[in-house]
Amino acid sequence: DIERALRTLTVPNKLESDAVAARQEIDLKVGIAFTRFQSQYFQSKYERLDHSVISFGPCQTPTLGFCVDRHDFIQTFTPEPFWGIKVVVEKETIPVDLEWDRRRLFDKSVVEYFHSLLQTHRTAKVIRVVEKQDRRPRPQGLKTTDMLKICSSNLGIGAQQAMHL
Fold it and tell me: Which of 21, 34, 121, 122 counts the highest number of beta carbons within 10 A?
């Protein structure tokens, strides 16, 4: 999709661009206003609540839902036993680990069957060699909320001023 978009670049749609900018500004202003409102409301209602900010943002509600779903999944998770086969062969007195594509199976009898085949056949034939080169992924881009926090704490710039830079 990215390559296709780069091959078919056109003049940006001003109305769509303005709509995105308006949405960002509305989300930011609603988040700031509601954060201030709920922080003051809860701090006056509950004595033991310190003076920290109780943040609100339009993205936080669905994100909280994902976090709760994941927490519930982890809490109700029941581990299952699994089995695998690890084969080490010697090539000119150097041990070489062979990797099994299936890695792990949840059926012990199938693994026992493959193990018995390995015990009876003392030779092996290499049918494929895969070489991989790993790279670290690029760091993710800075999100608007992260940028606003950095501007506020490190540069002393307010959210509205940072959005207009």
Answer: 34
